[in-house]
Amino acid sequence: MNSPGEQRALAAVPRWLLLLLAVALAAQVGWRGAGRVSAPAASDLPPAPSAAALRLASLGETAAFSRIAMLWLQAFDSRSDNAIPYRQLDYGRLIAWLRAVLEVDPRSGYPLFAAARVYAENPDARKAQQMFEFIESEFPLDPNGRWAALAHVALLAKHRLHDLPLALRYAAEIQRLTTDPTIPSWARQMEIFILEDMNELEAAKVMLGGLLATGRIRDPEERRFLEGRLEEIERRLAASQAKKR
Amino acid sequence: MPGQTATIARFALVEARRSALPWLAAACLAAALGFAGFLSQVAITESSALQASACAALLRACAVFLVAAHVSASVVREINEKGLELALALPMPRPAWYLGKLLGFAGAGALIAALYALPLAAWAKPASLAVWWLALAAELAVVAAAALFFASALGQTVAAITATLGLYLLARSISTIQVIAGGPLAGEGASADAARWLVDALALLLPRLDAVARGDWLLYGAPAAGDLAQSLAGLALYVVLLAAAGLFDFSRRNL
Asked: How far apart are CA B154 and CA B160, in angstroms?
């Protein structure tokens, strides 16, 4: 390598060369600055390849590849001039991509996180529901690792779509399939509170009573809170029965 | 000076012909055709499209590597064997030697591009293929200019090849990196802004190699003439920039 001591003075460089270098550098910066790259449009999203093809392209580095593929995927239809990003995307195509990327690295949480937190929040209810179905279909393959996405979707179904039966279905799946004790109680008990919101007080009472009877609730504060809720449900039940009489 | 430049360019071409470069280029061609043939046997549809696109992509990568390796090795060998000092002892200005080498290496790149375009004629339309060849030749000229710059400045073969291929990969991926960095989900705050600024600044100093010599041109037709001209002009500008930077460094060298 050349060290500074091996260099001649700047005056040894012909002037025309200095000028050429300056002009070429300015032209390059100006040229590239004028043609700034913008995010690809929704229509640019190509059909998804198979997971096997993606795995081949990863050259064995599936963990890195699947995450980089997600970074690439999330750039579509995300231009800064979009009032609502991702609204124009073809969700059938998008889901095929998410499914293929998830299959390449099933332990990655990225595809389902993006599906639940980004794509499922689309104001278009039909597209949001497509994403809900995708998350629900992937959840049983690893319930303890994927519960967070389905729990978020249950909240979206309840508060955005106001579809309580749908929210209840997702909450019931979380309750039924998860076994990891580190999963927070609010996620596992979501079904009870949705039943309560649906005025299905009898079912909520049975479930809450059953949960308390199993002894899985060890935290005294949590136990006290749930017992309070159970008492409230019983009061509401008694009041509604009195009204019927 | 033009006469001396032409002489150096001719010798660079003669050196390329007498080296292992033609054999390596032919071996890469045979391997790419063999691989494409294998793919077509297992494909259930679009076998021609698969052969054309896979072959073009493989040959493009091979051509870039061969040109980068050949230019780096040739320049470093000439420096180590004092051939450069001998050439400059003659009444010849330094720019004549440098530009002659660049011209010769770019010519060798154009010949490799032509060799690799020929078998693709079996699957692609002549007009699309001609455009692909032109773009590949321009891309190889950029690679040759980069390898000449790094080999001349660093004086080591491995370092020069690594730097050239690093620049090439960055230029191929910078547009995607820019898009990812500028997305609405990218983080907020000073560090995210700094990262975005850095990526944008880097993009200003790189050519758009992702926009040229694409395999899909062979399948779906070449881009519009205006877009193509713009892409090629960008590459030509970058060759001039690399040549000017290389000449600047070469002129300051105390040989």
From this structure: 6
**Partners of residue A118 in chain B, C-beta under 8 Å:** 185
Nearest to A7 among B208, B234, B252 (CB): B252
Is A71 inside a domain boundary? Answer: yes
Q: Say what the ipTM of the complex is.
A: 0.77
Residues of B in contact with A33 (CB under 8 A): 204
Domain that holds residue A92: 47-164
Residue A115 lies in a domain: yes
Alpha-carbon distance of B156 to B75, in angstroms, equals: 9
Structure confidence by residue, pLDDT tens digits, B168-195: 999 998 888 887 777 666 666 788 788 8
Residues of A in contact with B252 (CB under 8 A): 7-10, 12-13
B129, B117 in Cβ contact below 8 A?
A: yes
Task: Identify which of A167, A166, A174 has the alpha carbon closest to the alpha carbon of residue A143.
Answer: A174
For residue A85, which residues of chain B lie inside 8 Å, CB to CB? 184
pLDDT means per 10 residues, chain A with 245 residues, are: 65 88 93 76 80 84 87 74 69 93 91 90 90 95 92 90 90 90 82 80 76 73 78 82 74
Cα B48 to Cα B52: distance, rounded to the nearest angstrom: 6
Residue among A6, A10, A24 minimizing CB distance to B244: A24
* Number of domain units in chain A: 1
Residue A31 lies in a domain: no
Asked whether the beta carbons of residue A80 and residue B185 sit closer than 8 angstroms, the reply is no
Is A190 among the domain residues?
no
- Counted across chains A and B, CB pairs separated by less than 8 A come out at 99
pLDDT, mean of residues B56-67 = 95
